[in-house]
Specification:
Radius of gyration: 18 Å
Distance between the termini: 30 Å
Number of strands: 8
Order of helices and strands: HEEEHEHEHEHHHHHHHEHHEHH
Largest sheet: 8 strands, mixed
Strand content: 5-15%
Structural class: alpha/beta
Number of helices: 15
Low-confidence stretches: none
């Protein structure tokens, strides 16, 4: 967690044991109503470092590394076909247990990428916990897999590569970690230099660590199997998001190019909870918290207060 001290000065690092196999690491910062910030792939809690300074006077920020990422626990299953340790329901339970530890019974959530998928499931599984939610640059997992096209598979190649059976993706990535960090981070930002050097080094380091590479792959394997199964069950049972929801996506990203984001989110929300007027594309690529932190701050202050 040493990187946190330079990018989150005066914050309080934490390592919270929430079960006999899971410890969640991160930082706590600020004062006010609780706001849980959830990062995505291939990043860590450091993705929010440009956002936090403007929010910490308004919110108590809880900024964890997700299970399988950063310095949080990386459990593995002995069964190569069982990815339940990395279902979004399991990772949402981590978040609820973490917030319970801090004494927060309900809270705001902002999630990007994988963190957004966890936030989506948390809204379904624990509706009493979520006051309002902002999701960044995603559509529902089942909808995106279901709309697979040649163009989508080209642009989201990693969804199909990382879900290949172990240890093939793990072997390839750890043989050329720098190439993968460049592909996923630099090309994923359109080649723009949007990252702090400390943050980029933290993200790139994950591709060098085989344990982390494996658990990141497991995150994606769970999405391609168990998470789709869970979303199908939720759909059949009529379980939908019932808290106020705002969705933002990058104008230069896949969501804008290939999906009608608001239409997809309407399908999984109770009537009237999607903030139609406040949900739209922003001038950004995929990594909105680092490319357009001012937009994230503005929407958090506007929607959560």
């Amino acid at each position: 967690m040493s990187q946190s001290f330079s990018l989150y000065p005066n914050s309080t690092p934490f390592r919270i044991s929430i079960s006999n196999i899971i410890t969640i690491a991160g930082v706590r910062h600020g004062t006010g109503p609780p706001l849980l910030l959830l990062h995505g792939f291939p990043q860590t809690h450091l993705i929010w470092h440009k956002v936090a300074p403007a929010l910490l006077q308004h919110f108590t920020l809880i900024i964890p590394d997700l299970r399988g990422y950063g310095t949080s626990s990386k459990p593995t299953s002995p069964d190569p076909d069982d990815h339940t340790l990395y279902t979004k329901s399991a990772m949402a339970h981590d978040c609820v247990s973490l917030m319970d530890h801090f004494g927060f019974s309900d809270y705001y959530i902002c999630g990007h990428d994988r963190g957004g998928r966890i936030a989506h499931q948390l809204c379904i599984d624990y509706p009493e916990k979520v006051k309002k939610c902002i999701l960044l640059d995603i559509c529902p997992t089942k909808a995106m897999f279901g709309a697979t096209s040649h163009k989508f598979a080209q642009l989201y190649w990693h969804w199909y590569f990382l879900t290949q059976p172990a240890p093939f993706p793990e072997n390839v990535i750890t043989a050329a970690p720098a190439a993968f960090s460049q592909k996923c981070l630099v090309r994923g930002s359109g080649g723009r230099l949007i990252y702090d050097d400390v943050a980029f080094s933290d993200y790139a380091r994950q591709f060098e660590d085989r344990e982390t590479v494996h658990t990141m792959c497991e995150d994606y394997r769970a999405s391609a199997k168990e998470d789709i199964e869970q979303q199908t069950k939720d759909e059949e049972a009529g379980r939908k998001i019932n808290c106020p929801l705002r969705v933002l996506w990058g104008k230069e990203g896949v969501v804008e190019l290939l999906f009608d984001a608001k239409q997809e989110w309407r399908k999984v929300c109770e009537e009237g909870v999607l903030d139609e007027e406040g949900s739209f594309a922003v001038e950004s690529g995929h990594f909105i918290p680092e490319e357009r932190p001012e937009d994230v701050v503005r929407h958090c202050l506007e929607f959560f207060q």
